[in-house]
Amino acid sequence: MNDIRWVAIKGETRADKNGIQFKSKGYSRAKLRCNKFFRGGKISFEIEFHSNSASEKPMIAFVGLNEETSNPRLQFGISSAGYFSISQEDITGWKNLSNTESTCYGNDIVHYNILIEVVGSKAVLYVNGVLVCKTEQAKLSCSQITISLEGEGDIIVKNFMIATEKLKAFVVMDFSERFKSIYTEVIKPVCDELDIECFRADEYNYPGSIIKDILDSIRDSDLIIADITPDNGNVYFEVGYAFALGKNPVLLMDKERKDLPFDISGFRVIMYHNTIEGAQYVKNQLTRFLKALINN
Predict the structure, then answer these.
(1) DSSP 73
(2) Burial class (CB in 10 A: 0-12, 13-18, 19+), 268
């Protein structure tokens, strides 16, 4: 993704076509925000720490996501001293999701090649091609990327690149013929119109553990859509797993069902009639729900 531009929103730093430069004689902080939006894919860049040899504190860079959204902030931490982390903020403060503790001694200049990969709720941090941090509990919104820099000395960030991926929606539902039309005539067309890759577990065409593939798909998908009309234990298990990951599934139910199970009766559900008129209604509602989640 080209044409990346940065604006300093805190502290003193410089950003141009050659990258970002942070210079500090004393300990200070700066933050920049990028003009590009990111929800999933890859972020890569090079970073150099030129530490003041007299300083006892390491220099630190944070790549931040969700900064201007309602979701808790997500940060990837990179330290000149060899400490790396993935952390997320909740109502109690910052929670460390993954970290690697090591110490670099005697290096006034430290250079790293950084790669961040985000797929669904899985986030991975690579340093110089080595996986150093990984979590499957990340909560991500579509947000602009920030870089926070702090320390005493110089920090240079260059060759910053973003590769976004198409949003993925995993559909949880009964696979019987009765529910085939709601998938092929409503859910898939809506996802196609919104440029979302949509799939169900019965579309896998390779060997392996089915339950592992389903759980991986729930974790790695940006959106979960579930039809909870029949009392299907597999569907309810998968919906529960999605809620546990903070996925906030979009729930659909045929109006012929009179009530919902107690544990999900408090959630918003798109109710539909399995008719031509009902199909158009659920298309409109599903489009609205998915747009709200995409833009959150």
Answers:
(1) P
(2) exposed
pLDDT tens digit string along 98-139? 999 876 655 678 999 999 999 888 999 999 999 999 998 888
- 51, 168 in Cβ contact below 8 A? no
> Dihedral sign, CA of 48, 99, 81, 34?
positive
What amino acid is encoded at 99 in this protein?
Answer: N
CA 176 to CA 163: how far, in whole Å? 38
Residues recorded for the chain = 296
> What is the rounded distance in angstroms from the CA atom of residue 30 to the CA atom of residue 11?
4
- Strands (E) located in the chain: 6-10, 14-16, 19-38, 41-51, 60-65, 74-79, 84-90, 93-100, 109-119, 122-127, 130-135, 143-164, 168-172, 197-200, 223-227, 250-254, 269-272
On the CB side of 57, how many CA atoms lie within 13 Å of its CA? 10
- Residues 166, 223: Cα–Cα separation, whole Å: 12
Confidence of residue 6 (pLDDT cuts 50, 70, 90): very high
Give counts: helices (H), strands (E), the chain: 5, 17
